[in-house]
Amino acid sequence: MSTPPKTAWQDAFERWTTGVVIAGADTRIEYANPAFRTLLGRERSEIEGRSFLDLTHEDDRERNLALYNEVVEGSRDGFVIEKRFVRNDGVARWSRVSVSALRDDVGPTRMVAVIEDDTVRREAEEQLVQSEQQFRELAQRLTAILESITDAFFTLDREWRFTYVNQEAERLLERPREELLGAHIWDQFPDARGTQWDVMYTRAMESGEAVRFNQHYDPLDRWLDVRAYPSAEGLAIYFRDVTDERRAAELIRENGERFQRVARATADAIWDWDLRMDAVWWSEGLQRTFGIGLDDITRASSSWAARIHPDDHERVVTGLRAVIDGGGESWEDRYRFLRGDGGGYARVLDRGYVVRDDDGEPLRMVGGMSDETDRVEAERRVREQAELLAKAQDAIIVRELDHTITFWNPSAERLYGWSAEEAVGRRIEDLLYEALEAFRTATSTVLNEGEWAGELEQVRKDGTTITVEGRWTLVRDDDGEPDRILAINTDVTERKKLLAQFLRAQRMESIGTLAGGIAHDLNNVLAPILLSIELLRLDEEDPETRETLETIEDSARRGAEMVRQVLSFARGVESARVALDVKRVVNDVERVVRDTFPKNITFRNEMPDDLWPLLGDPTQIHQVLLNLFVNARDAMPDGGTLRLEAANVSIDDHYAELSGQAEAGPYVRLSVIDTGEGMPPGVVQQVFDPFFTTKDVGKGTGLGLSTVAAIVRSHEGFVNVYSEPGRGTTFRVYLPAGGADGESLTPRPVEAELPRGNGELILVVDDEASVRDITRQTLEAFGYRVLTATDGADAVARYGRQGDDIDLVLTDLMMPIMDGATLIRALRRMDPDVRIVAASGIGTNGALVRAADSGVSDFLPKPYTADTLLQVLARALGERD
Questions:
Q1: pLDDT one-digit tens code per residue, 222-235
Q2: Phi-psi sector, 70: left (phi>0), alpha (psi -120 to 50), beta
């Protein structure tokens, strides 16, 4: 039977006024409570670890050791002895010692001794025997002592009448002393007549020898240790309450039995290691779990250590000793342990807890070893499956029936922008859906039919909408009840776009074929009309008739011009390319504008002197500009400003990737800018579609802008449009520059001269992911550090966290949630000195003015080249003039 951990018995012994000692079979004291240490006037370190014989008076040692050995050998369970302990100051104190053995299956392993200071009683007895006179002289002092002791004490004369009763006796007997003194004991307590009380008292009275016994006292439900000492006058009787002592002993016994039952019941191998004697006790779990018989392993810890795998041995033993020697309370490790049944090494989890004395010295260690082989193997299989899921290209999501996400693989992180830590535990409809109707329909189908497949519109973390092709499966539990939903989602957004482009190309091809046929037939109809007019005019002298013929001719020529536009769209434009001076073409168109456009439209022409030449068809370039001017005129019914800007631009790889439709090289850019009504995004996306028009019936054919696009494509250029309701429209036409010999111009190399950053931190704000990424890559390549934000709200949050480190903010003006103008005002309130560069595809003066009024350092027209971007940033940061 093992000593329970200190916490189990400390409360029971530490507060006792009676001394308690626990000693081993070798007579060494393992524990001494404060009452015993006070009795001897010694410190804990002077008692524990020493043999109790060293503290015993030399005249009492032989008799004490003889009785102790009888208990150790098993010939008796315990004994009571009166002996002297020697105090630290050399004074001997008489004590009454009750010794009990705590046994296990092998034999006694511990002795529990209860020590009562008997010096006062023995002195009183000696005084009673030596002299009645001396007793009377000391009666008052003795009475005071008896009144102060914690034992109950009373005396009886030989007629069994009470002659003295102390306060503790009054309490235990529940009688006032005035009622007891002079009264017959058996008259006061008739129920005790004939019981052990009567028998033992009579034996002491008649034999003249002291008697002692333990008896339960029913009125108080307490156990009393009773001692009766005979004298010539009668009996002196002591009661002492030993209920707590008996309960503590019972607790020790019950804990020992409970420990044995737990050790037998668990599958773990329970161990108890006596650190001082290096003796390990093992439970039967060692045999059941690891196939090692208790006879196959010695009690020494080295026998356990020898079974640890060589690769784990040093780590485990070193870690264990570090806990024991370093003052730790617990130890835990996982290692491989050799089975005894030929099953190789088991993977075990071993835990132990150190029991220390009051000085922190380790006494023992108790623990348990569990077999984790099956669990480790299962975890390995789970990890392999998780790795396969992590490598899957599709987003794999598992959710509860209440739509709470429980699994989110790396592909889901890449697709949606939410990390697994952010997604798991949230409801999927809050994370991925704006419109829930399609989601609820799909969920209903999978719950009713077990599967669902189809397309859904979902939303990424950055707010962009994507289309996914989903395959959902209902997962059931072991009882066949619906448990979870497994979803495998594939991003088909780009595929859908490509398909739409393909279908649009097919539609355009069909329209082109139809338009070409119509144009051919119309030419055949118009040709005779135009020829006939000339014939009729030769013979006609009547002015009114000639005027009518001119009207017919104008209408026919207008129809022919429409046919040419249709052919340009339908079959592409094939014409001779010549060296073209853009200024001359612009001047021709400008004369038409100034002569025919309403006077409430102001025309401005901004063209540099060093504008590069083009290689193209003058008539077609004339048609492009005229169509754009007419379109701008119709957008300004109440008047406004129409501006034409021309510039030499060099398209680099950065710009080409942003544009998605250009190749790097030198271009002439023609910008037609109006201050008209502007267009919403849905209209902007369709302006180049054939026959699409926002004009009233009879006021537009829908071929003007489609013809512009066809001519520009035939010249290997491209055109961009930027518009916003109420803020006008900008068309930017990019045409490749070329010399008279047809060779392309080579722009000056600018990369080596581009300004570089010096580690400045730039916050790039744009709702287009491609713009953010390419701008970030460009700036980082030229020595800047970059933060990105998806919209104005995100930018405000990031500036609030890192504003002290940010040197400049580059923001788009047109963004959802919080647009650029609102963001600029918010940043200026946060930091009046913040440097801001605004970017926009609406290159109007109004945008520039608004940006300047907001405290913007500079303005970038979109899409911008790397050269333009770096020059503007350097200027805004004050690094260049």
A1: 788 888 888 888 88
A2: alpha
